Amino acid sequence: MKKKVALKDILLLQLAVGIYSINTVVGGFVGNSLNENGALSVKTIGLLFLEVFVLGVYAVLWQQLIGRFQLSIAYANKAMTLLWSLMWSIILFHEDVTAFKVIGVLMVMAGTVILNTDPTASEAAMADNKKEDER
Question: Which one of 57, 60, 131, 135 is most buried, counting C-beta atoms within 10 A?
Answer without folding.
Answer: 57
